Amino acid sequence: xxxxxxxxxxxxxxxxxxxxxxxxxxxxxxxxxxxxxxxxxxxxxxxxxxxxxxxxxxxxxxxxxxxxxxxxxxxxxxxxxxxxxxxxxxxxxxxxxxxxxxxxxxxxxxxxxxxxxxxxxxxxxxxxxxxxxxxxxxxxxxxxxxxxxxxxxxxxxxxxxxxxxxxxxxxxxxxxxxxxxxxxxxxxxxxxxxxxxxxxxxxxxxxxxxxxxxxxxxxxxxxxxxxxxxxxxxxxxxxxxxxxxxxxxxxxxxxxxxxxxxxxxxxxxxxxxxxxxxxxxxxxxxxxxxxxxxxxxxxxxxxxxxxxxxxxxxxxxxxxxxxxxxxxxxxxxxxxxxxxxxxxxxxxxxxxxxxxxxxxxxxxxxxxxxxxxxxxxxxxxxxxxxxxxxxxxxxxxxxxxxxxxxxxx
Amino acid sequence: xxxxxxxxxxxxxxxxxxxxxxxxxxxxxxxxxxxxxxxxxxxxxxxxxxxxxxxxxxxxxxxxxxxxxxxxxxxxxxxxxxxxxxxxxxxxxxxxxxxxxxxxxxxxxxxxxxxxxxxxxxxxxxxxxxxxxxxxxxxxxxxxxxxxxxxxxxxxxxxxxxxxxxxxxxxxxxxxxxxxxxxxxxxxxxxxxxxxxxxxxxxxxxxxxxxxxxxxxxxxxxxxxxxxxxxxxxxxxxxx
Lengths: 409, 240
Known about the structure:
The complex is a heterodimer.
Chain A: H1 3-8, H2 10-19, H3 26-32, H4 36-63, H5 74-86, H6 89-99, H7 109-130, H8 138-143, H9 150-168, H10 170-177, H11 180-188, H12 190-210, H13 228-254, H14 265-294, H15 303-328, H16 332-356, H17 370-391
Chain B: H1 6-35, E1 66-68, E2 72-76, E3 82-86, H2 88-94, E4 97-101, E5 108-109, E6 114-120, E7 125-129, E8 134-139, H3 142-145, H4 149-152, E9 161-165, H5 168-172, H6 179-193, H7 201-204, H8 214-218, H9 223-230
Antiparallel strand pairs in B: 1-2, 2-3, 3-9, 4-6, 5-8, 6-7, 8-9
């Protein structure tokens, strides 16, 4: 790198270099991108993005195995339902810190809010891929209100909450840009946004389960229950807490240079594990209550029943016990693996409700097409890459020294 | 849907109530298991060092006394003698007391010099400084039979001794009264907060009344050194 080059284009290059290219000249930055992880992400996107384009050009029929019998596939079950549940860390952590004053968890609020924001953003993108006529999305939101429809409530809630999450994430964006006054205003909105966010989350996390109240004959009786909105809401809390444990562990490894080493990341993981353990324990009994309420005991001795027991015992009760044991004995590694297991369990649950146990008695069973799977993988890859791009530039995992003593949010 | 007759409905409801009761019964031990055993005393966190505006109110500081920084007080009488005692902070820091070792009648005491010591139940003792120069003329007879009175009523029946002051006017410079006492007590309380263990949460965070034996609660092994630090008789000098 020659000093004369730096001098000639100093003002423009220094801003771009500092804000976008991690303090490097453009070509050096490009070279730094040549890593195995980026190569894999690039490969996935190189295959996946044309497939997304293919889906929008040739339609759902050409790209998916969806049908009139099975209109909802993994873009709903995985991208939308699992994505929204796993993005619940945003409201659980923001509420814990800003409403309940659990300051210990302050260092993980920003990554949790960012994960929440990206989770919702890519859930909406997945939904766009799934909708037959995505250009009609503004119709139910603005032009043709369907007040009694659960879907209407979900649409509005997701639009509003995505906006709220975006606004909650403004302080680090303004800190990155160096806009102190704008940051101050963004920080002042924190409490209001948090309260609004938890209201919206309570509504739509449960309403996503409420959607299935309309399908009592299609959903297997072991998964169908009048309590299904409560199941979705309660499990979203465990999902959000587990996702924050997993995400903070991965970030701690991947962005070690950016982490504030005074942060007690192990203590935070153990504290979140306590919460997740208790939530999963209660969730297990509420689910059990649903089986008793419907008188479904006999169905447990069927193949679907065995799979239901795998979910109940393997993905709810077992992680609850492992979290409890790990938190009590301060076994952070166990807690992190349990959190990953719980995340998997939540995905299994959402896929059970929306895909596996849906239309269980119909001969025409849905199996996702390779293109559907690839589009989902691509969306997750773009989401993770966006998270990395932001964390590498904005103060998400660390605090900027100039804002350290001010009211940081 | 599985049809119910009236009896299966009852049995289903019984089962639901049973599950709810079982959950509540299991939840309590599960909760306490998850929370884990009580934590060992730890050094204070940054948050607990935050000054508390009303910390001075934890400790009684009667307006008619003069206070010395070694946590002793004196009060003048009509007979030219001064009554000397330990203050509420010292009483709660060290107590419960098993013995108060006072100088003999006729002995000389000097302001800022070691004058008496407080012994706790475990046999360890902490020295205290005299707030005044002079000669000891009387000791509180109640202390021999009941040393705890010095801790329970440090400004009343728990007085320690009467001293004939030799240079009271000069000594006044180093004694505090009024607002200065409050400010000083705030500092002392803040210093104490800086060492407070989680076990003393009610004292520090909730405005609860301080308990006797605070030093022991904070540092069971080195409580006498800790107390001496606050009472300005530690060998290495004050750091609080």
